[in-house]
Amino acid sequence: MTRGRVLVVGTTPDYIELIEGRYSGRALFLTDARVRRNAGVERPPEEVEVTADLSNSKEALSSLRRHLTTHGMELSGITCFDDESLALAASLAAKLALPYHSEASIKTSRSKFHSKRAWLRSGVPCPRVLTAREPEDLEAVIDRLGFPLVLKPLTGSGSELVFWCKNRGEARKAFRIITRRLAEHPDERMYHLGHYQGQGIDPRQDVVAEEGLTGPEFSCDFILENGRVKIVRVAGKILAPELGTGTTHLYYVPANGDTGISQRDLEKQLFEAADAMELTSGLFMADFIVHRGRASFLELSPRPSGDCLPWLIRASGGLDMLCLALDLAEGSSPVLPPVESFRFLAAVRILARQTGVIERIDVSRIAGDPGVVDITLYREPGHKVALPPGDYFSRVLGHIIFSPSNPDDLAEEGDRLEKLLRVEMAS
After folding, report:
1. SS3 of 174, please?
2. CA–CA distance from 46 to each of 43, 50, 228, 305 (Å)?
3. What DSSP character marks residue 84?
C-alpha cells in the first residue's frame, strides 16, 4: 500500500501543476472531466488524477473509489481550493469518513444570503441582506434597504455579476443583467439548484441584495483549531470600480496594522463569524470591510484565498498556502511565520481592457524594473479575451509582484507597471 494522499477536490490544472511540481506524491486530484478536456496542457501521471463529471456526486465517488482500488491508494485527508467544489468535498468527506466541514455548513457559507442571515442572527457585523426574484421584489427590497445597494448572485465567485447601485435606474438595469446571465450561465456547479432545493431559493433565479457599506476592504487567511483562531496574514485591497464592482486591482501584504482593529479583536470576530455558520476547524479565507471600527464581513469560505494571493504570500513571507492546506488536511499544526517577518510587497493584477485574441505578450519592460519581484502570466498567444458582464475571468492575464518604492502610492505604481506590458491582440 502506498503512502496516503490528500484528496484535492475539483481544482484547476494550474494548481495541479504547482502542487505536483512542488509536492509530488502528496496529493490525489479529483478533476472535472470538462475542465481537463479544455485545459490545453499536459495531464499529470495517471495515478495522480481522477477525472469525472463533478456535477454528479455519485459518479465522482464511484470513479474515486475505483481509482483508489486500482492504484492501491489510501487517503490521508481532503481539501478544496475552489468555491464550486466545496459542496462536493463535504459530501465525499462524509461518505469516506474523512475529517471535513459538514454539508450544511458548506451550503451556508456558499450562499451570499444564508451566510449573512446566519451572521445577523448571531450579531456578527455584516451588510443587511434580502433576495429578489421578480422586478416587483426588487422594488420592495429597495424600499427596505435603500441606497447604495449591492446586487449579486446567490452563489457566485469573486466580482462576477456584482453591481454597486446608487439609484433605482441602476438597480433595475443590474437586476436585468444578473437574471439574464444566470439563466444562461454555463457553470452548472457554481450555480447549482440542488444544494438549496426545499429552501425556497434558486441560484439561477434569485438575486441577492445587500446594503452597500463603505470603508477600506481587506482579505484574510486564518486557521481555526480547537476553538482558537490563528491569523495567517491580512492583505489590503485596492479596488478598481471602473473595471466592475468588487474588482480588486491590487493586493498588498502585510496589512494587519492597516485595519485599525487589534489582533485580538479581529481573531475574536473571525471566530464568531465562522462559529455562526457552524464551521469548526481548518483553513479559511474572509473578505471584510472595516466599517465603524469593526470588521463587517462580506464572505467567509473554508478554503485558502485564491487569485494572486498564494503567490504574493509566498513571496512576502515564505509561506506556501497550498502546502499549508495539505498539512492541515492531514491534521498537522504548522508553525506560522510571525507577521513581522513578512516583507512588504504588492501584487497588481494584469487585466485586459479590450476583447480579442492575444497574438503576443511581452513582459521584457516589466522584468527590467528594479522593484519587480515576480511576473506570472496565466495566458498565452491564442487566448480569447471577453469582458464583463459576459465573462469576468478571461480578461485576467496574470499578475506582477513588486516591492513598492512608495507605499503611499501603491495604485499609481501598480498602474505604471501594468502599462509596461505589451499585449498585441487581433479583433
Report:
1. helix
2. 8, 8, 39, 28
3. G
String of DSSP letters for 345-361: EEEEEEE--S-EEEEEE
* Dihedrals phi, psi of 53, to nearest 5 degrees: -80, 105
Indicate whether 197 pLDDT > 80. Answer: no
Contact, 263 vs 101, CB < 8 A? no
The C-alpha cell at 9 is 477536490
| Beta bridge partners of residue 50, listed in sequence order | 30
**Whose grid coordinates read 482558537?**
228
Q: Of 112, 115, 213, 114, give the one whose Cα is nearest residue 153.
A: 112
CA atoms within 13 A on the CB side of 114: 21
Given this model, what pLDDT does residue 158 score? 83
Answer yes or no: is pLDDT of 198 > 60: no
- For residues 41 and 22, what is the distance between their CA atoms, to the nearest angstrom? 18
Identity of residue 389: P
What burial class does residue 252 get, using C-beta atoms within 10 Å of its C-beta: 0-12 exposed, 13-18 middle, 19+ buried? buried
pLDDT tens per residue, range 164-179 = 999 999 999 999 999 9
